[in-house]
Structures are given as C-alpha cells and as structure tokens.
Amino acid sequence: MNRKSITVLFINLILVISTFGFNNLSGINEGAPKIYLECHWCSMDFVREHITFVNFVRDRTDADIHIYMSRLRTGSGGREYSLIFIGQNQFQGIKDTLKYYTNRTDTDKSIRIKMLKKLKLGLFRFFYKTDYANNFDIKFNNNSTKNIFSVQQKDPWNFWVFRASLNTSISGEKSRDSKYLRGSFSASRVTEAWKIAFWLNNNYSESDYNYESVNVKDIKRRQSVFAYLIKSLGKHWSAGLMLSTNSSTYNNIDLSGTIGAGLEYDFYPYSAATSRRALIQYRISPKYNNYSHITIYDKNQEYVVEQAISAIVEYIEDWGTISGRVSFSNYFHDLSKNSTSISTELDFKLFKGLSLNLEGDFEAVHDQIELPAEEANTEDILLQRRELETQYNYYSRIGFSYTFGSIYNNIVNPRFEM
Q1: What CATH code is assigned to 160-402?
Q2: Tell me: the pLDDT tens digits for 349-365?
C-alpha cells in the first residue's frame, strides 16, 4: 500500500468517526442551562455522573452559570470550601457564594457528597424562577431535622487537634541505595479569636553510591520545632508571636533559635479570603545561631536581629486568578545583609478556548551569614549536600493552552484510563 492510499484511508476513517460522533448526541440535554465548573482538584467524572440535569461546557464564555471553587485550611486540619456562582446570559446579575466544611478524617467519598449537595443547592437558585424548575421535585429529609435545630454540642477537646506521623522509604539499584525517615508531631487550636500551633519535624536521609572504584555516602539531617500564637484584632488586623528552633547539615546550623513578633493588616475583611486578599505583614525576630563549622565571617556562633516585610495579593475572578508576593528582609547589625524576593502566578482566560499560565519567582540573596568558610568539594556540589554561595535564584514557567471543538462536556467514559 503506497503513501497516497494510506492518506485516503486515514481521511475516510476520520470522516466515519466524525459522522458517528455527530449522530450520537444523547449526552446533550436539550434546553438545559450550560455550566462551567472551575475546580482543579474535583473529580469531574463524579460531578457529571450525579448532576445530569445541566450541560457541562469546557469554556466559561459558553456557560450560563460559571462556578468557581476555592478552599482554605481550617484549624482542625480540614478544609473550608467556597463555591462562587456567577450568572451569565439569562442569569446575568445573579451571584451567590455557598460554603461547606470537611474534616481531616473525612473520606474522599464523603467529601465528594458534601460538594455535590452544595452544587445542587446553589444551582437551584438559578433555576427556580425559570420554566426549567418544573422538572424538579423538592424532597425534605426528616431525619436531619434534629441536626439542624439541635444545640451545638460542647467540644471535649476544646478545639485542640493533634497529629503524629512517621514515614520511611527505601529505594535502590545496582550502584545506588537510599533510605529516608521522617517523623512529625503537631498540635493546633484555631478559633475566631486565636490561632495556636506547634510543629516538631525530624528528617533523615542516607544515600550510598557505588560505581566502579568510587564509593560515596551522602547523609542529610534536619530537625525543627516551630510554634506560633496569633491574636485576631478585628476584621483587618492580627498580631502574632513566633518561636522556632532548628538544626540542618545542609545550612551549616548546629542549633538555631528564633523569637519573632509580627503584625498583619488585610485591606479586605478576613472573611473574604477565599476570593481576594491584599495584605501587609511585618515581623522582627531576634535570633541565635550556633554553627557546625566556622563561617565565612569567622563566626562559631552569633546573635542577630532580623526584620522582614511582605506584601501579598490574591484575586480570584471569573476571568482567572492572579496572585503575587513581594518580601524584603535584612539584619540590623549589617543592612547590606538582606534579601528581596518576588513571586507571581497568573492563570488568565484570554478569550474563548485560550488560556495563559504564568508563574515566576526571583530572589536577590545577600544574607547568607551561615555559609561555612571551608570550600565545598565536588561531592558537596554534585550531591547538593550543603548550601552554596549565590547572589540570586529564580524559577519561571509560561504556558498556553487552546481548546476548540464541541462545547459540551457531559459524557463520562472511563474505559482504558491509565
């Protein structure tokens, strides 16, 4: 078979498949509102299976209702989810936000069910004044009435949540084997007035490399303890006290201890944090460092005071999401020992089907007071066994995506998924 015959066969095959696809429109609900659900962690197959009375589309500009989901971590280690419903076309001007909460112990299935209930409840507000509402029946669950009207039970743990974890892994091949061990413990208590938290972490990794006559052992250790006490000072202000201690073979730290105090102001009320934030943080931190090796400034140990100021913004709109952070820090004993960092992330819907994704970080580094005076050898550099002198570090990513074709996104077909 020559090249021309193969080309003709391929074109005919495409035409047959296309014809079959155009004739198979059973997955489209005639006259149903079109929905665009923007959720990066959701199982869309699950949503499409259980919400069958709408048409899901793949671009927000085709939708009658745009739904955006965001989440924040709660004090118990669970999540607060916000569903933002934005009406378009015949629903223009209708906007609503619903929230639901999950616990750390919730299974994936129970989390999905909670999301499903809120999605249905939020969608009904758009439908009940239309002719499409005639297709619905309202059902009330009598068994749940006592939960709605019951008095809130007293928490025997007084909002305290504890978590302990231990992780280990072993991997290898003929010329290499690695071992990793991590243990952690945390305790936290979060209320409207206070945030209290404590973490303890211990990390150990060991790798052995054997190739021909070369034998190298790489060991990294890091231990840290961190605690904070945050007080709410109204809708916009908060104050905090932070305590930490750590040791790190990578950072030449035998023991480091820090006591920090800070203030934060959010130009928006904290209650709006799931959709927008614009805040300024200031922190001042006396610190004691005991080094594993003498530093490039001929120090075995020293006391320093560091200050840092940061500006953070995040906006979640129907056209996309933009977030950014600018931070500056310095040591009081030598103002030339400072660091400036800028980071930003943008997910922008340029126009129908075309999205732009940008992400970038840059840091100007002039505060590496912990660097050891001894020069790094080849093994230290290749194995990233210790921190090296630098004046900057950066990361960037840019991406475009363009989707075209059918606007509908209703069908669930998991066959041969890998």
Answers
A1: 2.40.160
A2: 777 778 888 999 999 99
